[in-house]
Specification:
Rossmann fold, 6-stranded parallel beta sheet, 21% strand
């Protein structure tokens, strides 16, 4: 009987071990790629993880691999290549998405917060994805941001635009700004940076050119040096408008913003549709609209601006004001 009991235990152990190996092999392998970390991108990552967790995909039930390239193009390429055989990959923002999609991998790509996906070349159509990629776009509400500026700091006569030509999303946003300002008859000066080290010098040049407000697009190079920009503009009492709440938290004055955690969750929803059996080409990309006004309260006194209430009306839309910098 003892030998029979031992044999049964051995058989049961073997079956459990085999089952555990089978389960491990069936666990989906999911990648999350960021070129460079900042507050917005990390919030988007947390939104993705929260969306996956709500559907039961956690570190216990899936192999979730998060990697950041720390701003290095070679490292980004290495990370993307290493994930090219995963079950699916999330890419946050334009550079990581372009790098992964250009691999033409069989692994589906779900991009998060790519402001102009078609212009960036990561999909040909928002409605019918055809490059094994789909996701969310945080299209920058340029017109409403300038309208916000008209409400908070009316009378701006010359805008300064600062960006890097290496980031497609920033170029597209600045081109949209230029079209708006041209149509409105407002003067502007556009200057570029090659890296974050150039931001302070270019900001000084814009101020010297008589710019009485500065606009900052979503641009990782500018974002990395935006504190220096914000300090200079505070010194000269120049309002700075931008494209994300993270940039407001870094010292810029105001924007009309999206919920960064929320856009991550919406991106996860698209991936879950794929995991539940919907072909990727039947999962349209979506635009996530900006839904609140982010204002740096530390700049209110500097600029002599007073807020009235907890909402603000811009272009006929009422936005909740979310204060930063308190």
């Amino acid at each position: 009987m003892k030998n029979l009991s031992r044999l049964m235990c051995l058989v049961l152990s073997a079956l459990l071990l085999t089952a555990s190996f089978a389960f491990a092999e069936e666990m989906p392998q999911i990648g999350i790629i960021i070129q460079k970390e900042n507050g917005a991108f990390l919030d988007m990552k947390e939104g993705i993880l929260a969306g996956l967790a709500q559907a039961g995909y956690t570190e216990e039930t899936a192999k979730i691999d998060y990697q950041c390239a720390q701003g290095d193009a070679t490292t980004l390429a290495t990370i993307c290549n290493a994930m090219s055989e995963y079950d699916l990959v999330f890419t946050i923002a334009t550079p990581a998405t372009q790098q992964f999609v250009n691999l033409e991998s069989l692994t589906p790509c779900f991009f998060c917060a790519v402001s102009a996906p078609v212009a960036a070349g990561v999909i040909s159509s928002m409605e019918t994805p055809d490059m094994n990629a789909t996701g969310t776009s945080n299209a920058i509400p340029v017109e409403n941001i300038f309208a916000l500026a008209d409400v908070l700091t009316p009378g701006i006569t010359r805008y300064g635009l600062i960006y890097s030509t290496s980031e497609t999303n920033a170029v597209n946003t600045v081109e949209e700004c230029e079209r708006y300002l041209d149509a409105a008859g407002i003067d502007y000066v556009a200057k570029t940076v090659n890296s974050s080290a150039d931001v302070a010098l270019v900001t000084e040049a814009l101020i010297a050119d008589g710019c009485d407000a500065i606009f900052v697009p979503n641009d990782s190079n500018v974002q990395a040096g935006v504190s220096a920009l914000a300090e200079l503009c505070a010194e000269y009492a120049i309002p700075t408008y931008c494209s994300s709440a993270t940039t407001v938290a870094s010292g810029c004055f105001a924007t009309i913003a999206i919920d960064d955690v929320g856009i991550g969750e919406k991106t996860a929803e698209l991936a879950l549709a794929y995991l539940n059996g919907t072909p990727l080409e039947q999962i349209p990309s979506i635009v996530v609209e900006a839904d609140y006004a982010s204002i740096n309260t530390a700049m209110l006194d500097v600029l002599g601006v007073t807020l009235e209430g907890e909402t603000i009306d811009v272009n006929g839309v009422t936005y909740n004001v979310v204060p930063m910098g308190e």
